[in-house]
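This part of the workshop introduces the protein records we will be handling. An example says more than a description, so a record of this kind follows:
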Amino acid sequence: MALTLYIHPLASFCHKVLIALYENGTAFHSQTVDFSDTTSASALLERWPVGKIPVLHDDATGRIVPETSIIIEYLQQTYPGPVPLLPHDPEVLLRTRLWDRFFDLHVSTPMQKIVTDRLRPEGRNDPHGVADAHAALDTAYGMIERQMSAHPWAAGENFTIADCAALPALFFASIVHPFHEDQTALGDYLDRLLARPSVARTLREAKPFFHMFPYRDAMPARYLAL
């Protein structure tokens, strides 16, 4: 098999790429990276010394492709499928790229700040940073609510890379910073994402690892029933 994706099944950025692969039925092999195991980690570090996942290795071309958005664009260029996750229309493409970056930078990043702070040793927490992250999510939720009040998907009428980014960002963010009751468009959007077969498959594969999530006790019952 030409494509190997180095992942961890619980990692939100890995979910973004997995959703893209499953949307198009792209054949690949997933290699779980255990950073506590030097043998497991070295296989990744030999290819991408930065050590961040996911990373795609294409044996057919010899390419190492890091970074989620770059991986998905590479897949569309090299292994195109029936779902064009980066639209061909230039205007729609710009909007798609914007929302892809928005979910990564303004939802996933503050969400991860809140999550990782819970993993810090006692006395090493960053309450000001966590408060800033909660405020950032409030701002982001308001902007997404307005966007989703006018469109079924993040960039418009069709499912794109922006929605691949949105699902893991919103799934985990909604646990650590729940939506406001009046953010119905945002909530309905997450429901549409959760109903997507590619998303359901990704989360089913992640479910055995939910116990490792620091906010597992706050997960809604419907997430645990996926």
